Amino acid sequence: QIPNAPLVIEEIEVTPPQKNELRIKVIATGVCHTDLYHLFEGKHKDGFPAVLGHEGAGIVESVGPGVTEFKPGDKVVPLFISQCGECRFCRCPKTNLCERSWSSERYASMSDAESHFTCRGQAILQFMGTSTFSEYTVMNQVAVAKIHEDARLDRVCLLGCGIPTGYGAAINTAQVTPGSVCAVFGLGAVGLAAVMGCKNAGASRIIAVDINEKKFEKAKVFGATEFVNPSAHSKPISQVLHELTNGGVDFSLECVGNVAVMRSALESCVKGWGVSVLVGWTDMEDFSARPIQLISGKTWKGSLFGGYKSKDFVPVLVHDYMSGKIKLDEFVTHSMTLEQVNDAIELMKTGGCIRTVLNISTE
Ligand code: NAD
Ligand code: ZN
Question: Which keywords does this Swiss-Prot/TrEMBL entry list (predicted)?
Fold first, then answer.
């Protein structure tokens, strides 16, 4: 797979699971903007050839020596942030980072150093350590969550990335409070999940901001109460929000991946206590802001995978979906096969979907 080109379908060799590893039969996978980012937008082009995809769910096919928690047939979600349980980050309740993740050193290539795939003898990188656009993948048990045996895999695959990311950014990182006023910038799956998080945290107003007005109807389903299209105003969006809210919102969440929007989200917060959270992904440009924004008492934070310790919380979120506490069905606008992956990517590029789920294999 090369950058800036459609994906190609190839036969690959997948290694058998080694010590502490499992081989997973992928059943379904979502297509997330981070896949597109790596393929078309990111400036680092050393992360190729790779198998993309990181929002999947599947069934354990076989296990290597040392694996005690999993057995063939278990339903699982591969995790792009591991949770080894032993490193100093895993031991600290303040973070969900894990030293064993590919991401602790390899943000530039966005892949694991170790590969489990070859194609005609050439090593293929494992994107975000997961590679779910594949019939099989191999992962270390520290980066796999075992989930409920009745979980619907073509839905809970979304818990591998986008939904915990946005939902947790509101619940864990922003810590949205009851009665508060929130603004969510960007209404893809990540932003809509942030809207759902604000709603479940008891926000009284949730202002949904997107340049694509087609997204507003969906945002309403997740609990947004007002809608603003920045391109429809001649004033800066932060000024529009200040006027709407008598001085700025309590919480803002950036779910676009654009440094100008990150700045606007911060500037949209109320002075004194406003909190702005960066969720969107980019390493293309540095961001900037006036120091007075923070000196006046605002807080600027970031969130990776919604702050959730992955192995502990993905099974909890599966349970929350099955008990109706969080929505997943409403995010899925399209279902396709792996062969249609380029159509799914095109749909996301043009803003024509929320999430496309690719059905890879049958259970
Ligand atoms: P998406 O492409 O489905 O949604 C992005 C939305 O932003 C679209 O609705 C688009 O119309 C809107 N948008 C674009 N420019 C805008 C602007 N100037 N103002 C307001 N809205 C604008 O993407 P997604 O899958 O929901 O992902 C969103 C972001 O989150 C991406 O940057 C992705 O890489 C990132 N992400 C971060 C993490 C993390 O752990 N922090 C995890 C997953 C995804
Ligand atoms: Zn993702």
Answer: Metal-binding, NAD, Oxidoreductase, Zinc
Q: Does ligand 1 lie within 6 Å of residue 210's CB atom?
A: yes
- Which ranges of 201-258 would DSSP assign to H, the alpha helix? 216-221, 237-245
**Side-chain-facing half-sphere of 73: CA atoms under 13 Å:** 2
What is the number of alpha carbons within 13 Å of residue 30 lying toward its C-beta?
29
Does residue 166's CB lie within 6 angstroms of at least one atom of ligand 1?
Answer: no
Q: State how far the alpha carbon of 316 is from the alpha carbons of 146, 151, 161, in Å.
A: 10, 12, 14
- Cβ neighbours of residue 148 under 8 Å, at least 6 residues apart? 75, 315, 318, 319, 322
Mutate to test the pocket of ligand 1, among 34, 54, 96 (most ligand atoms within 8 A of CB): 34
Write out pLDDT tens, residues 114-148.
Answer: 889 999 999 999 999 999 999 999 999 999 999 99
Q: According to DSSP H, which parts of 116-161 are helical?
A: 153-156
Read off the pTM.
0.95
What is the CA 347 to chain-centroid distance, rounded? 18
